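pls read this stuff:
=====
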Amino acid sequence: MSTVSLAERLWAARRDGVAIQIADAEIPADEAESYAVQAAAIAASGLSRIGWKIGSTSLEAQKLLGTSGPGASPMLEPYCYSDGADIPIFPAHKPGLEGEFALRFARDLPARTVPYEAEEVLDAIDAVAPALEIVGARRVGGLFGQGRLLVNADFGANIAFAHGPWIEDWRDHDLAAAPVRLFVNDQIKAEGNGARALGSPLNVAVWLANNLSQRGIGIRAGEVASTGTCTGVIQTHPGEIIRLDFAALGALTVRMVAG
């Protein structure tokens, strides 16, 4: 397999809004190779990283994607939005909606040889926000059943990310119990809570810090993390207005538009 060739094709497909054929022989052979393709695709984009998306943090998402555990991928600045935004999507990528938590880091968590303890990671988080991830696939056939290795390579299946207002007193809230409701055109389509993401969004933060540390990367101050779906995956189309309601943690509303 040519890492560079597949990475460049994945980036071009993301940029141009098309889906491509990927032969079984092109799928990365192991996790290290899948992250190498991911890194090459990010480099091919030339875009800046604003944080990280974590996927497959719920058993439901793992079943849908054909994965057995979480994975992480950089989120790129032009594909990240705030409350009230219009978000371009391409039908060829078969986009889906996921209600998630966003975590913001106030200081670096650099790569190191010793694993991070939970409190070290939580002490680095300065704010939490309601968030939406739009996911999809650049491979013909869509996202479901792709498997961890191809999902890793394909930007972690990320299409776009949006967050609502940041909540700095997040320690006053039980994130695992926090409700998440997803509305499409004012009709509720899915609901869940923070516990659907590895038992708590905070567990996802610890997983991310140690996953990146093991890979020699680390988290930078100011970066954000999107914690994986708490609502399942709901297909979406241009023209839909999406609202996420996180009760005491706030809400956000965005509109899907044709890319």
